[in-house]
């Protein structure tokens, strides 16, 4: 008997924003192994536990029959879905969407997509919504992840472009990690940080986080600030930097504007006051400011602790203020560097796949940008009506304004804040399409039509990681069953809608003349010409050689570090200090809800666990859901490890074991975001069955970035009485 030879295919890990290169080993139609790509500059061959078990999850999803293998149509709400032919499914999706648009207008339709889609998928979804249907109601779960970082960069530096790169970790003298736990959420980047610390004993690490995480354990200085107080910390540090003459007046004069107003504001944040607001030691705040300002190169790494906040844009901007005031930007080892949570949150932003954006970092609110994109796409116009962002979209659906939702590669029934409201919105919609690889997500239960999508190892395209590096994603095996690439499904529905609305084609045969992801990529590439993220030099052929960072205009080399010349992407070319205010959390703890619930990730699981939850070995690190409480609180409540508690907010309640931990402070609680219906039970305040931490969280969002405050909820903890 002869066995098929082992094939090796270079691709990219589909989990976090580090964007590690992988080599997939396959035999025939089966993925049999995975290893780190030694030539990929994000990981140089390393993989974390999630990445190194990708092949096992790929086979396990098939073995356990959790893959969605054929289109399924639900004949009636409350009934099980039935198989349907692809053509019939696509016809029905186009017909139902078309009817709703013709009856109620384009804004009666919404698209909720994902930072795990590939750039090419994102591009065609955006073009379908904004170009053909004529609605800007398209947003993504990246809204829950990175939109405050985007808004912070644009407010201060003028463009959504992280200025630093991974190599800066090797050059930094001080690394300031705030609102991030890379030890668990970005493990390969954290290993690089550990290496840098071993190689350079002078490297100092400052970690600011309400929880004493594994990342904080490596810190030379740990600041256990209270949730939501980051702006007070940064303003307090700037106060010290000014007072101790550690700012860089020459840099401020030559390359920035707006410092005087900010200087006035931070006068109100002397270290004792700022430290009191943050709940930390004033001497520690002063020490952090001194290290930040005295170092030759300071790098800040930050993530959801800043972003997932009602004041997320201000938090990002206040941190960037510190870099501008000290000139710690645009040099090796220096700069504010946001870490992306998902593998392609960046790619989605690049193609404008969010409610307020257009292709190539153009803004929907800018009439010239709308006209440029209409010309590029060959449509009469792009609507000026602002699109609904993630939380707004489900609110509009709950009110009955949005009547059809198309959800792709994401699970809002588990991951959106205030789960009860999101589920009511899904129930109220006339038509819900769920395009998914996995049949097991909570959102699938609300679908009228389920469209099976191919996933990692089965599809072609590109992703962009945290350091603006674009990597190819490649298919090693054919998709199982009838699953199809996401871009293909979108194009097939778009062509059917074009047949319904030929007048929208401006005389063209089709707006979606794509026969491959590369054709989509080439159109996207062209749309970036002359823009800050110009990638006209990055053809698929060039990306075959190696992953590259943007910008990379035609005929030029990619640029790893931005703003080295001191010119920024603002109209004046100067960076802007942001005179932002400190705003406390939306729902402070009180006598009825006396605990601050903080959410976060586990090391070995990913999002709603549709992939990682299938592997027993990934439960070796943390085996079951739990709420972590400080030992003092455990004793006060008469709790022992493993005792069940009701964790209750104003919106819902869940039951889970308590666990004593000194990682959280008194009156704080921590729970991981991953656990869903299979692991937890709960109910909304009006009695609907719910599960997971988002039964509790609140939908309040930052007014600028529209990113919800997933990081803080006021809760109470009551011991569950056993019957
Ligand atoms: Fe994948 Fe992130 Fe782990 Fe790298 S660090 S292997 S990208 S999960």
Automatic annotation (TrEMBL):
<dbReference type="GO" id="GO:0051539">
    <property type="term" value="F:4 iron, 4 sulfur cluster binding"/>
</dbReference>
<dbReference type="GO" id="GO:0043546">
    <property type="term" value="F:molybdopterin cofactor binding"/>
</dbReference>
<keyword id="KW-0479">Metal-binding</keyword>
<dbReference type="GO" id="GO:0016491">
    <property type="term" value="F:oxidoreductase activity"/>
</dbReference>
<dbReference type="GO" id="GO:0046872">
    <property type="term" value="F:metal ion binding"/>
</dbReference>
<keyword id="KW-0500">Molybdenum</keyword>
<keyword id="KW-0560">Oxidoreductase</keyword>
<dbReference type="GO" id="GO:0045333">
    <property type="term" value="P:cellular respiration"/>
</dbReference>
<dbReference type="GO" id="GO:0016020">
    <property type="term" value="C:membrane"/>
</dbReference>
<protein>
    <submittedName>
        <fullName>Nitrate reductase</fullName>
        <ecNumber>1.7.99.4</ecNumber>
    </submittedName>
</protein>
<dbReference type="GO" id="GO:0042128">
    <property type="term" value="P:nitrate assimilation"/>
</dbReference>
<comment type="similarity">
    <text>Belongs to the prokaryotic molybdopterin-containing oxidoreductase family. NasA/NapA/NarB subfamily.</text>
</comment>
<keyword id="KW-0411">Iron-sulfur</keyword>
<dbReference type="GO" id="GO:1990204">
    <property type="term" value="C:oxidoreductase complex"/>
</dbReference>
<feature type="domain" description="4Fe-4S Mo/W bis-MGD-type">
    <location>
        <begin position="6"/>
        <end position="62"/>
    </location>
</feature>
<keyword id="KW-0534">Nitrate assimilation</keyword>
<keyword id="KW-0408">Iron</keyword>
<keyword id="KW-0004">4Fe-4S</keyword>
């Amino acid at each position: 008997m002869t066995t098929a030879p082992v094939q090796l295919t270079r691709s990219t890990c589909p989990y976090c924003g580090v964007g590690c290169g992988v080599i997939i080993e396959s035999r025939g139609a089966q993925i049999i192994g995975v290893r780190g790509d030694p030539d990929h500059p994000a990981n140089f061959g390393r993989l974390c536990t999630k990445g190194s078990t990708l092949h096992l999850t790929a086979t396990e999803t098939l073995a356990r029959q959790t893959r969605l293998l054929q289109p399924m149509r639900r004949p009636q709400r409350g009934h099980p879905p039935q198989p349907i032919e692809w053509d019939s499914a696509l016809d029905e999706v186009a017909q139902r969407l078309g009817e709703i648009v013709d009856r109620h207008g384009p804004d009666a339709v919404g698209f909720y997509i994902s930072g795990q889609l590939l750039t090419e998928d994102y591009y065609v979804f955006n073009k379908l919504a904004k170009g053909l249907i004529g609605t800007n109601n398209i947003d993504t779960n990246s809204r829950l992840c990175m939109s405050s970082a985007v808004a912070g960069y644009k407010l201060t530096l003028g463009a959504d472009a992280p200025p630093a790169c991974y190599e800066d970790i090797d050059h930094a003298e001080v690394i300031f990690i705030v609102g991030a736990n890379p030890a668990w959420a970005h493990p390969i980047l954290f290993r690089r940080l550990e290496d840098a610390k071993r190689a350079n004993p002078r490297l100092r690490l400052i970690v600011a986080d309400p929880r004493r995480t594994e990342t904080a354990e490596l810190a030379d200085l740990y600041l256990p600030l209270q949730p939501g107080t980051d702006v007070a910390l940064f303003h307090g540090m700037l106060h010290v930097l000014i007072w101790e003459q550690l700012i860089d007046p020459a840099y401020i004069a030559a390359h920035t504007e707006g410092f005087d107003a900010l200087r006035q504001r931070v006068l109100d944040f002397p270290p004792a006051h700022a430290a009191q607001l943050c709940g930390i030691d004033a001497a520690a705040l002063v020490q952090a400011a001194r290290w930040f300002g005295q170092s030759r190169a300071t790098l800040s790494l930050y993530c959801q602790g800043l972003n997932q906040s009602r004041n997320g844009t201000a938090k990002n901007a206040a941190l960037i203020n510190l870099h501008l005031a000290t000139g710690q930007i645009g040099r090796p080892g220096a700069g504010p560097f946001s870490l992306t949570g998902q593998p392609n949150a960046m790619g989605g932003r690049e193609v404008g796949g969010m409610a307020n954006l257009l292709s190539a970092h153009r803004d929907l609110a800018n009439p010239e940008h709308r006209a440029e994109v209409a010309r590029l796409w060959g449509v009469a116009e792009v609507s000026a009506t602002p699109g609904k962002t993630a939380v707004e979209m489900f609110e509009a659906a709950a009110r009955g304004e949005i009547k059809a939702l198309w959800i792709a590669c994401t699970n809002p029934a588990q991951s959106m804040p205030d789960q009860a409201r999101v589920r009511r919105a899904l129930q109220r919609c006339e038509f819900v399409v769920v395009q998914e690889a996995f049949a097991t997500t909570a959102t699938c239960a609300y679908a009228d039509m389920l469209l099976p999508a191919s996933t990692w190892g089965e599809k072609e395209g590109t992703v962009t990681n945290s350091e603006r590096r674009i990597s190819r994603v490649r298919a090693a095996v054919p998709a199982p069953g009838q699953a199809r690439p996401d871009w293909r499904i979108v194009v097939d529905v778009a062509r059917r809608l074009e047949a319904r609305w030929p007048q929208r084609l401006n005389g063209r045969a089709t707006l979606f003349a794509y026969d491959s992801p590369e054709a989509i990529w080439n159109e996207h590439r062209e749309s970036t010409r002359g823009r800050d993220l110009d990638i006209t030099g990055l053809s698929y052929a060039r990306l075959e050689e190696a992953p590259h960072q943007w910008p990379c205009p035609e005929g030029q080399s990619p640029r790893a570090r931005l703003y080295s010349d001191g010119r920024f992407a603002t109209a004046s070319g100067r960076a802007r200090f942001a005179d932002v205010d400190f705003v406390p959390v939306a729902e402070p703890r009180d006598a009825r809800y006396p605990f601050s619930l903080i959410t976060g990730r586990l090391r070995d699981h990913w999002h709603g666990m549709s992939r990682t939850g299938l592997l027993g070995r990934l439960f070796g690190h943390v085996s079951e859901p739990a709420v972590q409480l400080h030992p003092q609180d455990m004793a006060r409540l008469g709790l022992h490890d493993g005792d069940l508690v009701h964790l209750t907010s104003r919106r819902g309640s869940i039951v889970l074991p308590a666990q004593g931990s000194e990682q959280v402070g008194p009156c704080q609680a921590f729970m991981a975001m991953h656990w869903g219906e299979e692991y937890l039970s709960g109910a909304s305040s009006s009695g609907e069955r719910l599960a997971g931490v988002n039964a509790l969280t609140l939908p309040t969002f930052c007014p600028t970035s529209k990113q919800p405050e997933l990081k803080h909820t006021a809760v109470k903890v009551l011991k569950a009485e056993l019957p």
